[in-house]
């Protein structure tokens, strides 16, 4: 329950002037070569969550303040959100200074400026909209997102004068009485643009940390010293959220994991309420862009990533990881790893299959244990029950592939594609050396190495005929090694082509 009941849709129909996302700080407690902001929550960099939440407010300007490891952060933004502007804060002199760096690039600005952090991944657009709505309803110069927490240690504390906020005091600057206050500053605010610019210009760093505190702008707004001429706004309001996760910052990897667990818990809960069975939420991870239908069942140890979508009635898992896959209705996928694969209706895959990019399984196909596919299209009803590598191959429908078959697609330098016609039979341990075209209904005998095209309906055997020598074992047991001319094993020597032979 929120303490402001205004509905956001009505009151934030017009966007804010700017959102400034602070992301210049060090993140030393992550103990990482990577910028803290690139560490992922539910498969997305933390900063992407912050930028997406900000974007939802339809701001005229969206600025990320970068500093520490900024090349990494800028590269991420260029890829993920090229429309977002950055402002550089070369030296991290405090949150107030960081906002000043962003304002420099924004020129004259009126209206509302929202300030958020890049390391608060669970803050969402809905909460920001509610904050803006509260600000508009209160007619204040600033409105602060606050939360009442069990342990406020380290946070800035909200000083109140009844409904209104009279200031914010940092933990390090607070006295004992102030430290007992449990309502904390989330660091997320809406400011009147004119007051913000005046306040930032007036900041000093005369405090326990020698920093330019953005929180001091809040105190100035409360005191009325930075109000614009003729402004109808005055004072500072607080908008307190009951959802403490909305304000949870990530400073180390313990917090990172806590936030990941909570984000996942919320995603799973939403799917369960939408009709998906999740046998064990504690071992199931579903990323936010995944799409599930009613009556999907997800068994323990499964990870659904990227843009994966799953049709109704499908059973996924246990121990299955699907990344950017499309799975049809009633498919059963057990202990399988698949990436960029399309699994048709009613397919059965696994256990222990590895479906690599470009795999397309038409309706009712079956892939069994220790089968690896890559860029392979299997027609309806085709079955590969076990122990096969199928790379770069188009297999028709109702084809049976025996154990140990290999569709060899690479000669060490380049890859080529083979095709197998409808209803063909590929015996056990057959090697099909691409590029080869096998006609419909053809029969490839077990153990054959197929290096030429096989016509429709033909039998292809490409191996030596067996040789059986009666009584051979008894004759040779306990005796000296047989001379080579009587050794049936020497009948069919493999052929090795030497360079001299070719010259
Ligand atoms: C700040 C608030 C505090 C609040 C807390 C919530 C101030 C003075 N204090 O604390 O009241 O309870 O956030 O987490 O604002 N940043 C920059 N440049 C800087 C300094 C910080 O971009 O020079 C960024 C950081 O990357 C981070 C955010 O601002 O995303 C907050 O900085 P941090 O140092 O974590 O916050 P505190 O100052 O401890
Ligand atoms: Ca912090």
The helix content is: 10-25%
Number of discrete domains: 2
CATH architecture of the largest domain: Alpha-Beta Complex
CATH homology superfamily of the largest domain: Spore Coat Polysaccharide Biosynthesis Protein SpsA, Chain A
What is the number of helices? 11
Bound molecules: uridine-diphosphate-N-acetylglucosamine, calcium ion
Distance between the termini: 86 Å
Describe what this molecule looks like in 3D.
Helix content is 20%, strand content 28%. It is built from eleven helices and 37 strands. The model is unreliable at 1-12 (pLDDT under 50). With 503 residues, the protein is α/β, with parallel strands linked by helices. The radius of gyration is 33 Å and the shape is elongated. The longest helix has 21 residues, at 253-273. The protein has a 22-stranded parallel beta sheet that branches. It has a seven-stranded mixed beta sheet with strand order 5-4-1-6-10-7-11, with helices on both faces. The chain has a four-stranded parallel beta sheet with strand order 29-32-35-37, with no helix packed on it. The chain has two domains: 9-247, Spore Coat Polysaccharide Biosynthesis Protein SpsA, Chain A, CATH 3.90.550; 275-502, Hexapeptide repeat proteins (UDP N-Acetylglucosamine Acyltransferase, domain 1), CATH 2.160.10.10. The structure holds uridine-diphosphate-N-acetylglucosamine and calcium ion. Calcium ion binds next to loops.
């Amino acid at each position: 329950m929120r303490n402001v009941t205004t509905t956001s849709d009505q009151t934030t129909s017009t966007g804010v002037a700017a959102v400034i996302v602070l992301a210049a700080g060090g993140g030393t407690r992550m103990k990482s070569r990577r910028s803290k902001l690139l560490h992922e929550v539910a498969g997305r960099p933390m900063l992407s969550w912050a930028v997406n939440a900000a974007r939802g407010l339809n701001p005229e300007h969206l600025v990320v303040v970068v500093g520490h490891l900024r090349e990494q952060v800028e590269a991420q933004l260029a890829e993920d959100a090229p429309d977002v502007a950055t402002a550089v804060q070369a030296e991290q002199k405090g949150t107030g200074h960081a906002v000043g760096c962003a304002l420099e690039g924004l020129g004259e600005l009126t209206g509302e400026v929202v300030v958020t952090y890049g390391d608060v991944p669970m803050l969402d657009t809905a909460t920001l909209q509610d904050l803006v709505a509260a600000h508009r309803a209160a007619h204040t110069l600033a409105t602060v997102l606050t939360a009442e927490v069990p342990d406020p240690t380290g946070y800035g504390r909200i000083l109140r004068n009844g409904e209104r906020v009279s200031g914010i005091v940092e933990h390090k600057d607070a006295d004992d009485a102030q430290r007992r206050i449990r309502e904390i500053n989330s660091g997320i605010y809406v400011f009147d643009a004119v007051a913000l610019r005046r306040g930032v210009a007036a900041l000093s760093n005369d405090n326990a940390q020698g920093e330019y505190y953005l929180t001091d702008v809040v105190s100035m707004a409360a005191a009325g010293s930075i109000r614009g001429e003729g402004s109808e706004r005055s004072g500072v309001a607080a908008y307190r959220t009951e959802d403490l996760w909305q304000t949870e910052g990530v400073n180390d990897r313990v917090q990172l994991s806590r936030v990941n667990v909570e984000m996942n818990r919320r995603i799973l809960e939403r799917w369960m309420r939408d009709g998906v069975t999740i046998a064990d939420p504690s071992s199931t991870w579903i990323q936010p862009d995944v799409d599930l239908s009613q009556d999907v069942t997800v068994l323990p140890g499964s990870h659904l990533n990227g843009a994966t979508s799953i049709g109704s009635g499908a059973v996924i898992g246990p121990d299955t990881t699907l990344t950017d896959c499309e799975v049809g209705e009633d498919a059963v996928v057990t202990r399988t790893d698949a990436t960029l694969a399309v699994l048709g209706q009613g397919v059965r895959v696994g256990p222990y299959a590895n479906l690599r990019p470009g795999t397309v399984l038409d309706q009712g196909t079956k892939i069994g244990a220790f089968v690896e596919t890559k860029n392979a299209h299997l027609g309806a009803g085709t079955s590969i029950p076990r122990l096969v590598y199928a790379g770069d191959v188009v297999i028709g429908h109702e084809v049976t592939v025996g154990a140990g078959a290999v569709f060899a697609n690479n000669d060490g330098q380049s890859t080529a594609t083979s095709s197998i016609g409808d209803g063909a039979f590929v015996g056990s341990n057959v090697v099909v050396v691409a590029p080869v075209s096998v006609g419909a209904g053809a029969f490839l005998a077990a153990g054959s190495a197929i290096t030429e095209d096989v016509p429709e309906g033909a039998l292809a055997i490409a191996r030596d005929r067996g040789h059986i020598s009666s009584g051979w074992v008894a004759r040779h047991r306990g005796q000296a090694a047989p001379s080579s001319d009587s050794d049936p094993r020497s009948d069919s020597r493999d052929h090795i082509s030497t360079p001299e032979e070719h010259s």
